[in-house]
Amino acid sequence: MDTTSKPVISACANMMKCGQRQMRYKLKKKFFNNILANDVVVKSPVPSMNDDQWEALVKLWSSPQHKVDEC
Fold it and tell me: Is 0.85 surpassed by the pTM of this model?
């Protein structure tokens, strides 16, 4: 397998994107959804993410574009 070919690079990048998306989904589900704004964790709850990255995610999830109405 030629690891420098475009199809292989594209497939690997796609797998990484999917993994990152799943990680964000699980973090949001566990540490953000159904949590009061005052109770949201302000320091990163996972060792693989620094506090600045966690803060950016919380800010993203708090933005009106990313809020979902729950019925």
Answer: no
